[in-house]
Write a structure and sequence with these properties.
Shape: extended
Structural class: mainly alpha
Distance between the termini: 84 Å
Number of strands: 0
Helix content: over 70%
Largest sheet: none
Order of helices and strands: HHHHH
Length: about 140
């Protein structure tokens, strides 16, 4: 009885390892950069919020401190956006826009960043969101 039990343990371990390997592979394939783009956008969205807050500082926070924090959040998004672009070229524009933050004022980049992060938040399973409107069906010829 001990010999048959010992024979099943390696087989179970092999099956468990195979299942784990398949699960990891599927998780890696399904991400394809979208999850990373969403992570980058969480930094970007926080940066935009801090930038807006800097327009009307309250309490002990100063506009300059908030702007520095906004910049830091935006720069923290860069390596994540770069990895997303590496995983899927769809996120190349996001990475490029974030990388321009060291040369271009963030206020200039905000419209593009918002649009790109909207795309990241609306993708499902790494696919682009469907168009906002579906064109009408082509007319069919009717003779009467």
């Amino acid at each position: 009885m001990t010999a048959s039990l010992a024979g099943r343990t390696p087989k179970r371990a092999a099956i468990a390892a195979l299942i784990l390997g398949i699960a990891v592979s599927l998780a890696a394939c399904s991400n394809s950069g979208t999850g990373l783009a969403q992570q980058a956008c969480s930094h970007i969205n926080r940066s935009i919020a801090l930038l807006k807050e800097s327009d009307h500082p309250s309490g002990q926070s100063t506009a300059e401190t908030l702007q520095v924090q906004a910049y830091d959040q935006l720069r923290a998004a860069l390596p994540i956006a770069a990895e997303a672009a590496y995983q899927n070229g769809q996120w190349q524009a996001l990475m490029t826009t974030v990388s321009e933050s060291n040369r271009v004022p963030e206020t200039t980049l905000v419209p593009a960043l918002k649009a790109q992060c909207t795309d990241a938040d609306t993708t499902i399973f790494g696919q682009q969101a469907p168009p906002a409107s579906i064109p009408p069906a082509a007319p069919t010829g009717t003779t009467g």
